[in-house]
Every structure is written in structure tokens, then in C-alpha cells.
Specification:
The complex is a heterodimer.
Chain A lengths: L4 E10 L2 E11 L4 E5 L6 H9 L6 E6 L2 E2 L7 E4 L13 H6 L3 H4 L7 H13 L15 H13 L5 E5 L7 H16 L3 E6 L2 H7 L2 E5 L3 E5 L1 H5 L2 H8 L6 H8 L1
Parallel strand pairs in A: 3-8, 3-9, 6-7, 7-8
Antiparallel strand pairs in A: 1-2, 1-4, 4-5, 9-10
Helix pairs in contact in A: 4-5
Chain B lengths: L2 H9 L5 H25 L3 H10 L1 H9 L4 H19 L7 H20 L5 H10 L7 H20 L1 H9 L1 H6 L4 H23 L4 H15 L3 H25 L4 H19 L4 H11 L7 H11 L1
Helix pairs in contact in B: 2-8, 2-11, 2-12, 2-13, 3-5, 3-6, 3-12, 4-5, 4-6, 5-6, 5-11, 7-11, 8-11, 11-12, 12-13, 12-14, 13-14, 15-16
Classes of the chains: A alpha/beta, B mainly alpha.
């Protein structure tokens, strides 16, 4: 049985510069993995490579044992909230339905099965009550849930979350972390990038530190004591506040 | 002139150009109204303006060689859009600068070309500000056919257009051909502009594309309703504008646009989230007569 996500020795070039090299990362079903690293470490680039939007220079990316292709592979992608035009006059359910556009293909309209999938996804993220609400009236946390539902509507084996906690307050982050852990336990692999150390340490089963390559990876408790790995990944000194937070964790 | 007199004039065979102008104006404002929804929601007003100017050299060439205006305008518009798409690949320049260069450039080219035609001042004025006379019968059919084509394409690609407009990166990840959908939208905007230029004029056509959709957006939070209201507002303004311009001998394009502008202002003041509703709500919040628990709650919800 192959891992839900398998990234093997991947290198990626952007504008003639090698931004990722020797990336090795596996995420099993049922596992929530947090990808941590400084700005420019290549987190988003790695996600885009997994989605098949960037072609790796070397190496292989496989989802459920098959190479990824946009529209062909069931990967649930949750972009950063500010990438979405929230002022578009759509209801929550309509936004979730756009998650099926690629699968439906040209000239096909959504039918009963598709609306059922939408209802199901909204149920998963506990947004059923707000299904008819225009999206521009939602709070940040609710918007994040809508995007997760839109990703879930494909019933993907792998869920990719790009900085889901950015700009959200504490109770909202906690509720979302719980939701992500729950989604992972429903036999899905979940990989999220984040800058939020607390949520990553608390909610994830494994943390992978990235800076152009995977510096270290392991369960939060074990990795927290490996200060050298964090210093390498984030390029910080021994007196950094980051390490003091890890001590406390 | 009473509306009845206007109706009599419309049916008068000696004034055959009038019903033709009305038909073209109404058809083009319906098409512009619907395409305009995407232009407004995607914040493409500048691109709409660019396309409106970019079709000009095509119209000028078609006019000089007595070819088909719709075809000429479309070719020029699409060519300019492709040029912008190519030149935008250079990352030292933002797209809006490239658009700025090319649309004024093609407009200038149009002016130079049309100056070669006899009676150039008159025809230039016609192109810039529109005219209701001199629409050949064949144009009626070309406009009707083009309208149907644009509407059918919008209907067929609705979910792709919505998905791409909402979130390009996710659309790409799902395998939606984002670049091609964008290109189709530019072509649709171009076609909507081209069929409208004759009656409303090159300078004013942007209003037909933006104002009805913006007005509709003020009135609703539902895309479906917006795409219904917008063409309705556009078509009504075309009818009322033509009536007013015919009655008081005013330029048609200008009158139609002014009617649209009035409609927009009315919506801005009277819409559910408009100025009037806000004033009304804040008065209730201050506890003036009739302010109960329920109204207070709606006021707070409305404000948040």
C-alpha cells in the first residue's frame, strides 16, 4: 500500500534558480503533517508541485501511487484566503460547488449527485446552516471552512492547506485545528503549511521543517527538542525566541 | 413628445431607421449588461475601456474599405488583446501599463486611418459618439447573430467563468484552462463592445458595459439575480434614452449613458445597503421611536 502522498527526491526550478532540492516527504492516510519554514523556504512552491502546477526538474510526486495531473488527480487544495475574490456575489453552497468545475468538465452542469456532494462537504465542516449565506458576509474562520469544504467536495485522498491560520484569532484557530485533525482521521492525508508554531505543535501528528529541502521531520514532541534542526531551517541563533517557545512546548 | 407619439414614430415607415436603432441599442445593451457582470466583478473596467478603444482601428479600416464593421472591430480588438497578453509576459511591466500603451496606440492608429476617408470629421464624430441613422439592414442580423453567439458562450462556460473569477490558482489546480477561459472572456467583451459602438459610440460604450452591472451589483448579493437585473437595466435605459433623445433632439449615446448614470445613483441611494438604508438604520440605532429589541439586532447585524 503506497502512501497517500509520496514526494521522492524532488527538485524544482523557478526562473532558472533551483528553489527546492532533494525533497523527500511522505504523508499517510490518517496523518496530519505541518510543513514549517521561513518565508521563501519553498512551502508554496512545494504545494504547487504536488498539485501538478509546477513540473519538478527531477524526482517523482505521487498521490495514491499515481503521478499528479491537474484535474485528473483528486487533491483537495485550500489556497490562502486572500487568493479568493470574496466579494463575488455567490452563496456558500455555490462557492463549494466551484470545486467540482474541473471534474464536471466543459458544458456539463451540476446535477443532484453534485449538490449532494456539496451538502456533504458543508456538513463535514459544519457550515450547513450557512449554505445560502452570501460569502462576503462570512467571518475569516467561516471563509476558511468554506474553502476546506470546496476542497473536500472532490472526496480527495489528500488535502493541501496553504497557511490556513493566517489572520485568525485563537478560538478560531483551535476549532480549525480540531477540524483538520478530524478530517485526517477520516482516512485522509492532510498536509498544511503554516507559520503558527502553537497550532502545528498542538494539532499535527508530524512536523516537517523545510528550507529549500526537508531539514528534519518527526512527531512534534521529538522534533521540539532537536534545536539544531530548527536553527538550520529558520536560520536563527541559539538565543532566538523560537527556541524558547519550543522549550516551553 | 408623449410615449404614444414615440410609438407612432417607431411604426412610421418613413422613419425606418428608428426601430432599427432601437433594436440594435436594446440587443447590444442586453449583451453588454450580461458580459458586464464579469467585467465589474473581476475589476476589469480598465480592460473594458482598453478593448473599447482597441476596436477603433478595425472599425476605421472596415469603414474606409466599406467592409463589415463588426468583423473589422472584432479582429482589431482580439489582436490588441493578444498583443497585451504577450507583452505582459515581461515582468518588468505591469499589465495595466501594457494595456495603456496598446489601447491608446491602436486608438491613434484608428484616427490616422479614418482621416484617409472622405468626409472624415463627420464619420469620426459618428464613431466616437454614436449615431442612430444609417444602420443597414444587414447589420441588424449581424448584431442579432453576434448577440446570440455571445449569450450562448456565456451560458455554456458559466461555471468555468465563475470558477476562474473566484480563484485562479485553485481553478488551475482543478485542471480548468484558465488562460483560455480568460481569452474567451476578452473576446466576448470585444464582441459586446463592437456591436454597441455604432449606436452608443466608442467613447461611451464603456458605460454600457459597466454601469448596468454595477447598478445591479448594488441591488443584489446573488450572481443569478445580478445577471438578470443588469441586462434589464441596460435595455430599459436604451429604450428610455432613445425616447428622450428623439423627443428633445439630444445625442442618443449621451442620453442613454445619462439615463444609466441616474439609475446607478438611484440604486446607490435606495439599495438595501445604500445610503438611505444606512441613514435609516443609524437613526433606529440611536433609539428613536419604534426601536425595539428586534430592530436593534438587525441594525447591529447590518453594521457588522
Amino acid at each position: 500500500m503506497s502512501a497517500a502522498l509520496s514526494v521522492q527526491d524532488v527538485a524544482v526550478e523557478l526562473g532558472g534558480r533551483e528553489v527546492l532540492h532533494d525533497i523527500r516527504l511522505e504523508v499517510e492516510r490518517g496523518e496530519l503533517v505541518a510543513l514549517l519554514g521561513p518565508n521563501g523556504a519553498g512551502k508554496t512552491t512545494l504545494l504547487r508541485t504536488i498539485l501538478g502546477l509546477l513540473r519538478p526538474l527531477r524526482g517523482v510526486v505521487e498521490v495514491d501511487g499515481k503521478p499528479t495531473r491537474p484535474g485528473r488527480t483528486a487533491v483537495g487544495y485550500v489556497p490562502q484566503r486572500h487568493d479568493v475574490a470574496w466579494d463575488f456575489p455567490l452563496s456558500v453552497a455555490q462557492v463549494v460547488m466551484t470545486g467540482l468545475t474541473g471534474r464536471l468538465g466543459l458544458f456539463h452542469r451540476p446535477g443532484l449527485a453534485e449538490w449532494e456532494a456539496v451538502a456533504d462537504a458543508l456538513d463535514r465542516v459544519r457550515m450547513t446552516d450557512l449554505a445560502e449565506r452570501p460569502v462576503d458576509q462570512l467571518s475569516g474562520g467561516q471563509r476558511q471552512r468554506v474553502l476546506v469544504a470546496r476542497a473536500l467536495v472532490l472526496r480527495p485522498a489528500l488535502l493541501l492547506l496553504d497557511e490556513p491560520f493566517t489572520g485568525l484569532d485563537m478560538p478560531t484557530q483551535d476549532l480549525l485545528s480540531e477540524l483538520f485533525a478530524e478530517l485526517a482521521r477520516e482516512d485522509r492525508a492532510v498536509l498544511m503549511t503554516t507559520h503558527d508554531l502553537a497550532s502545528a505543535l498542538q494539532a499535527s501528528d508530524r512536523i516537517a521543517l523545510i528550507n529549500r529541502t526537508i531539514v528534519a521531520s518527526g512527531p512534534p514532541r521529538d522534533l521540539a527538542s532537536d534545536h539544531q534542526a530548527w536553527m538550520t531551517a529558520f536560520g536563527v541563533g541559539q538565543r532566538s525566541a523560537l527556541l524558547r517557545i519550543l522549550e516551553a512546548a | 413628445m408623449s410615449p404614444l407619439d414615440f410609438l407612432t414614430d417607431l411604426l412610421n415607415p418613413d422613419l425606418a431607421f428608428l426601430p432599427k436603432a432601437l433594436a440594435v441599442a436594446v440587443m447590444s445593451s442586453i449583451v453588454c449588461g450580461i458580459v458586464g457582470c464579469f467585467v465589474v466583478l473581476r475589476g476589469m473596467a480598465f480592460i473594458g475601456d482598453a478593448v473599447a478603444h482597441a476596436v477603433f482601428p478595425g472599425l476605421a479600416v472596415a469603414f474606409v474599405v466599406s467592409g463589415n464593421l463588426v468583423l473589422g472591430g472584432t479582429i482589431a480588438g482580439v489582436l490588441t488583446a493578444v498583443l497585451v497578453a504577450i507583452f505582459s509576459q515581461n515582468r518588468r511591466l505591469k499589465e495595466d501599463s501594457v494595456i495603456g500603451v496598446f489601447f491608446v496606440g491602436s486608438f491613434a492608429l484608428g484616427i490616422v486611418i479614418i482621416s484617409q476617408a472622405p468626409g472624415y470629421a463627420g464619420s469620426l464624430q459618428q464613431f466616437l459618439f454614436g449615431s442612430i441613422t444609417g444602420i443597414p439592414d444587414s447589420d441588424l442580423w449581424v448584431v442579432a447573430g453576434t448577440s446570440l453567439l455571445v449569450l450562448a458562450t456565456l451560458f455554456a462556460l458559466h461555471k468555468e467563468l465563475v470558477t476562474v473569477s473566484l480563484d485562479r490558482e485553485s481553478a488551475r489546480a482543478m485542471g480548468v484552462p484558465v488562460f483560455r477561459i480568460d481569452l474567451v472572456l476578452y473576446v466576448l467583451v470585444t464582441l459586446a463592445v463592437v456591436i454597441s459602438v455604432q449606436t452608443i459610440g466608442n467613447v461611451l460604450v464603456l458605460a454600457l458595459l459597466i454601469t448596468p452591472a454595477a447598478t445591479a451589483r448594488l441591488l443584489t448579493d446573488r450572481l443569478g439575480m445580478m445577471m438578470l437585473l443588469s441586462p434589464l437595466i441596460g435595455a430599459s435605459a436604451a429604450l428610455v434614452g432613445l425616447y428622450i433623445s428623439w423627443s428633445w433632439v439630444l445625442p442618443t449615446g449621451g442620453t442613454v449613458v445619462l439615463v444609466l448614470t441616474v439609475a446607478f445613483l438611484l440604486a446607490w441611494f435606495l439599495s438595501p445597503r445604500g445610503l438611505l438604508a444606512r441613514v435609516h438604520r443609524s437613526r433606529r440605532r440611536r433609539g428613536e421611536p419604534g426601536a425595539g429589541q428586534a430592530t436593534l439586532r438587525t441594525a447591529v447585524e447590518g453594521a457588522s
